[in-house]
Amino acid sequence: MSSPARRPPSACHVALYINQLTQSSGRHRLIDTQLCVCVPHVKSCVCCSPPLGWRSWNAWGNRVSQQNMEASIDALVAKNWTVDGQTVSLADVGYAAAGIDEGWEGCGKGVNGTQHDAQGNPVINTKFPDMAGLVKYGHDKGLKMGWYENGCACGERKAVLENYEGDVRQLHALDFDGVKLVSHLLRTVHSELTAALLTRAGGGRTAAGRSAT
């Protein structure tokens, strides 16, 4: 009997890979871009309701800034909704994650007009004068904070290992809880590399005594 045909890479595979690596790293990461994940050794995807949360794109587009992100965080935790007779916030009913989408990148501010510096770290737009402080602001309000790392705004078209390493390093250094990776911009080989780097960095973070959630 011939072996069953292998399913082509898909968004489901990307989601599965990220879910696996985040569990093995000892740190839960919110994956807020996929509706389905593939189960190992099962030929179909299992679909579930998407995680609850809020991302900046539909509200702010590339006009997003630290100032309007803080205002949006405040809106998520403001108790100005009534549910079953109780005054609650969006965060109270499950929308307890805020994600910074496209627009945070310092396009052209890196090496040779790229978005990354000589060490591979992503350059942050001056609209975000204190990205670590913004993440802490969200955490202090009881929210999970997410980032977006493989956007296309800056037009980088060449895969550079140092940049992948820098992206993951900054994700952890800034204390983000989750990351958005758009599957159609992430080729299979690059998703495997990103997964390996996240796993390695996540393990180091836990070993260093940082809090795991």
What is the structure about, briefly put?
The protein is an alpha/beta fold. The chain contains six helices and eight strands; from the N terminus they run αβββααβββαβαβα.
Q: What does this 3D model show about the protein?
A:
The chain has 213 residues and is α/β, with parallel strands linked by helices. It is 34% helix and 12% strand. It has one domain (11-205): Aldolase class I (TIM Barrel, Alpha-Beta Barrel), CATH 3.20.20. The strands form 3 sheets. It has a 4-stranded parallel beta sheet. Helix 1 runs parallel beside helix 6, helix 3 runs parallel beside helix 4 and helix 5 (161-173) packs parallel to helix 6. The longest helix is centred in the C-terminal third of the chain and has 20 residues, at 188-207. The model is unreliable at 1-47 and 203-213 (pLDDT under 50).
